[in-house]
Amino acid sequence: MTLWWIGNAVVLVVILPVVIWLLNRVLAAVERIRRAxxxxxxxxxxxxxxLDGVPEALAETxxxxxxxxxxAVRYAGSVAKLLG
Length: 84
Description:
single chain
């Protein structure tokens, strides 16, 4: 019975503080991860607001590419006639 009480005392004096210390470190790391993920989420939400004009910009880009393609084909045809 005496060994049982000694074992309980060892658990309370040695093991329990170590477990509490390790748990504290894990919880601190979890808190840092939570704060970082909140900052990432805030940045993502702010970025979504900046993307509102993208469809219009892409439509303008498509129009410009079509115009440049037409001009490039005409230019290439003229150069081919001069060289040929």
